[in-house]
Amino acid sequence: MKTITLSTAIIGTGAAGYNAALRLSRMGQTDIAIFTMGIMNSTSRNTGSDKQTYYKLSLAGSAPDSPEAMARDLFGGRCVDGDHALCEAALSAQCFYQLAELGVPFPVNRYGESVGYQTDHDVRGRATSAGPLTSKLMTECLSREVERFGVAVYDRCQIVRILKDDKGEALGFVALNTAVTDEDGRLLTVICKNIIWATGGPAGIYADSVYPLGHVGSTGVALEAGAKAKNLTEWQYGLASVAPRWNVSGTYMQVLPRFVSVDAEGNEYEFLNEYFTDLGECLSRVFRKGYEWPFDSRRAREGSSVIDLLVYRETKLRGRRVYLDFRCNPAGLAQLPYDQLDEEARKYLENAGACFGTPIERLDHMNRPAIELYASKGVDITKEMLEIALCAQHNNGGLDVDLWWQTDVPGLFAVGEVAGTHGVYRPGGSALNAGQVGSLRASQYIARKRSDRPSEPAMAQMQERIETAVRELNVLCGKLLANGQAQGDNTNALLTEHRADMSACAAAIRNVTAMKTLIEKDRALLSAFGSRVAAVGSLGLARAFSLRDALITQITMLSAMIDYAEAGGRSRGSAIYTAPDGQSAAGLEHEADGLFRYLLDDGARDTVTQTLSYDAAEMDCHAAWRAVRPLPESGGFFENVWRSYRENGNVY
Questions:
Q1: Is the dihedral of CA 219, 223, 225, 227 positive or negative?
Q2: How many CB atoms lie under 10 A from the CB of residue 209?
Q3: What is the structure's pLDDT at 590?
Q4: How far apart are CA 11 and CA 154, in angstroms?
Q5: Are 284 and 345 spatial neighbours (Cβ–Cβ below 8 Å)?
Q6: In-domain check, residue 220
Q7: DSSP readout, 248-304?
């Protein structure tokens, strides 16, 4: 068994993980290393949209802005801790300019201003973009700089257990090394004082998902180690293509494609026409779906999110497959009735000079890179329809962290999407900024307060814990492989089944009765994991541990949603909780026994946040509610700030 000793281990090779490594390196920290399940598999390296957004402080034009104003807007997203909002606002410019100087091609005008535009849930025009692959470009630039510092990267290492000392502090972990096939080298142990958990969101719990296939997340491992979670109920769902997984936001909708569903016999239906009697209204809502891309319960009755519900109805209730067809206009029209669009849609298309032709011709005129993006992934949308679904895209909640992005397990920091710093709503692109800010904050704290290695007594104490953990994990691996030898690998089938269950009852449409059934099903499999799960080879073992992580995460997510509903919570954000006595989108009142009936949130819980602790022994969760931390007073008297900065860098 190989053991590595470090000061700080960074888990994950996305934009947040690489930024943590870079920041620590620039602060003089050399006793660090990165561990990852797959260097090329992070969400930030493999995701995007028609024009992927980065949200930051306004840095151009005459419109006034300030960190305090941006913090207020982030804080206004509901259930957000004020210290996180102010940190993400105050450090947004610093993080943005680092990326620009590393080579991310954010556009500037002739005079060097970083111009912006307005994104969803944004009132200031703070958004910018380097194109469809903004986060990929960020990850590549950061990784090149980390490589220049010579930071060691251990690939194909899946963290399966976090180790803690007698005081409850994180002091290392055990990883499954999938590059090794023999039993002796299968497990790798790391002893370290700090773990920066940059594993991304819980991508492996839904079937209908726009997360990259190679990314599954590792939230469950941190929950099992005792890290509290926060705001797990709050997700972002939206329309996305199925293969490849990609958001169909922005221009993909604004060019007004044809929506088609296909049944098992191959019959095609333009199903939007069943709901909308006015073509102009239908097309206007499709247009607005472009910049109102996330499903929003507030827009599910008379707004653009009715489109999401109609897609959900076709796929989940009618068993059909849904496609976007860019090759011809809706209703087979040679020319669309642009004069019947609402003013916003009509003026946009007029200003873009796009009131002509077919959807693909309009897309080619307005945003040719959007066509080229799919072509680069082997899909020619000029010749074939694009299959879509209502998919999970981002978890606004995550692990509960303090203002230095440290969890309540000392020594365990969470950065990027795995950290729960967002609330019910967040401006588009704010997640990229939050990942950069959070990894900077964690690095600052570690460099100032926790830069040494574990002490000799601590390392001696850990030896027995390591041996116990490794013995238990080896026994489990042996059972999984023995089962696989006897009956074949079933990890893929189990993952597929439980992900489909989650998408069916606990995604954009949530049914408490069905969620309670699923949580018991998850617990039953988890309690009999060693006897019911069968793995073949190192990749089968990796999938088995991903399944285990997904089960723990699902149990915690479902517990959060059930607790929220039973505490009186109503539909809000990107989720509808079915309520038989509620209202419904017009025309959908009787679907599936009132599945689309719901009551909108009244704002009563906007100033509190839900936290959960996972009990590994009971496979159960304990929920609590607390007031959000208030927005701190920004600024300060310079002489006082300067004095304390000279003393401790204001890191405390």
A1: positive
A2: 24
A3: 67
A4: 10
A5: yes
A6: no
A7: --THHHHT-PEEEEE-TT--EE-THHHH-S-HHHHHHHHHHHTTS-S--GGGTTTST
Q: What would the two tokens of residue 441 be?
A: 């904050």
Q: Give the C-alpha distances (Å, rounded to integers) separating 217 from 36, 199, 214, 379, 536.
A: 11, 6, 10, 27, 21
- Residue 46 included in any domain: no
Give residue 640's pLDDT.
96
Given 386, 402, 435, the domain boundary residue is 386
Pairing status of strand 235-241 against strand 576-584: unpaired
**Which residue blocks in 55-91 are alpha helix, DSSP H?**
67-75, 82-90
Of 309, 275, 305, whose CA–CA distance to 293 is shortest? Answer: 305
pLDDT at residue number 302? 87
Q: Which domain holds residue 310?
A: 244-386
Same domain assignment for residues 381 and 495? no
Quick check: 261 and 322 in contact, CB under 8 A?
A: yes
Q: List all residues 6 or more positions away from 280 whose beta carbon is below 8 Å from its beta carbon.
A: 337, 340, 341, 342
Distance separating alpha carbons of residues 154 and 162, to the nearest angstrom: 17
My answer on whether 256 and 381 are in the same domain is yes
Do residues 506 and 373 share a domain?
A: no
Give the residue from 386, 406, 427 where a domain finishes. 386
- Are 497 and 623 in a shared domain? yes
Q: What is the pLDDT of residue 180?
A: 85
Domain count, the chain: 2
Strand 235-241, strand 246-247: pairing? antiparallel
Structural contact between residues 132 and 49, judged by C-beta atoms closer than 8 angstroms: yes
The pLDDT value given to residue 254:
97
- Report the 10 Å Cβ neighbour count for 265: 5
Residue at 343 is within a domain: yes
4 falls within a domain: no
- Whether 250 and 380 map to the same domain: the answer is yes
* Order of all β-strands in the sheet with 576-584: 509-510, 576-584, 597-598
**What residues in the chain have per-residue pLDDT under 50?**
none
Identify the residue whose tokens are 């920290």. 29
Q: Give the integer Cα–Cα distance in Å for 361 and 366.
A: 9
- For residue 576, the domain's CATH number is 1.20.58
